[in-house]
Predict the structure of PH domain-containing protein.
Amino acid sequence: MCARRGETISGMSLSRKLMIDGEQTVETTRTHVKVLFVPFLILLVLAVAAGFLVPRVGDKGDGVVGWIVAAVAAVLLIWGVLLPFLKWYLWTYTLTTKRLLEQKGILTRTGRVIPLSRVNDVAYEKNLNDRLLGCGTLIIHDASEQAGLQLRDIPRIEAFHRTVSNLVFEQHGTARNDESV
């Protein structure tokens, strides 16, 4: 789920019109696919239920009940599967050489930008579930009054944390391998 230097995930790189002069995309990622587990289960249950019910009730009467079951299944499919997938697909985190951007939204796109030069602290958390799946939450505090930005369910969190930390050190003029800290 993470794209490395210069690569993008499914063409979801930062738009050139949003880039600052001299800025390059370092990494683009979205949350771990574990967030799609429940929508996948909903899809399976809907497929089995609709596949079982539509032929059984569709043969009775004039078939209106079968169409109603199919319509209810379609609405549940959109609400329980399609919308969560679109939310996951369109929610991206982009790390550039100068800033970290969060972009999300299906119809209304919103975003938050943190310049790396303003970042004070970079930390990560991994619960047992995250450790098993290889993901975690990256917490970034900057010099603003806003609460720290929490990037939840980031795949390969340690590598992403190292990359962000190295870029922050570069922005602050600190040596990358300063062991005395």
Q: What stands out?
A: Residues 1-11, 175-181 have pLDDT under 50 and may be disordered. Residues 114 and 171 are 13 Å apart (CA to CA). The two ends are 31 Å apart (CA to CA). The helical segments are 37-58, 64-90, 128-133, 157-171.
